[in-house]
Design a protein that fits this description.
single chain; mainly alpha; Four Helix Bundle (Hemerythrin (Met), subunit A); two-stranded antiparallel ribbon; 2 strands; globular
């Protein structure tokens, strides 16, 4: 399997899982999504907003735009859901347009917190792993407030059943 195929599969999975989460969480009340729960972020909605903001931050490096605006915020669940879906779709379409050479190109990142110089595909992997980490937290946060119907979103599940839909 080529790097291009691997990364393309990963961003396709990410797009699928973001949509699964948004569709699942759209059935929950504003009160549930804004209920305080001990975690990295105080509510499920704030955790989703963090996922989105981090994806957009890294997008500026992945796409070599370097124009992230930290003042961008989301307030409603509808805004957040729409932004998350758009972000995942944007990454999917972007990766589809890249060559193997584009994926392996190193991109230097200089921020107030760190400097690094990794390949584009490593930043893409980071964005997806970061979202996965926080989605796991959301499942636990949900369980703590009585939401027990999280969808199955394992990569292997997607990989087995993606072509059967």
């Amino acid at each position: 399997m080529s790097l291009k195929t691997l990364i393309a599969n990963t961003v396709e999975y990410n797009n699928w899982v973001v949509n699964k989460y948004v569709d699942w969480l759209a059935t929950k009340s504003d009160a549930q999504l804004n209920e305080d729960v001990a975690s990295s972020f105080p509510t499920i909605l704030k955790t989703l907003q963090h996922i989105w903001q981090t994806q957009e931050y890294w997008w500026t490096f992945i796409a070599e735009e370097y124009n992230f605006d930290f003042s961008l915020t989301l307030t409603t669940k509808e805004e957040t859901f729409h932004a998350l879906k758009n972000s995942a779709q944007k990454l999917l379409q972007y990766v589809d347009s890249l060559s193997e050479e584009d994926l392996t190109k190193n991109i230097k990142v200089e921020s107030p917190w760190f400097q690094c110089d990794f390949s584009r595909y490593e930043y893409i992997q980071h964005v997806i792993m970061h979202g996965t980490y926080h989605r796991g937290q959301i499942v636990t946060m949900g369980r703590n407030i009585g939401i027990t119907d999280a969808p199955m979103t394992d990569y292997n599940y997607w990989n087995i059943y993606k072509d059967l839909k």
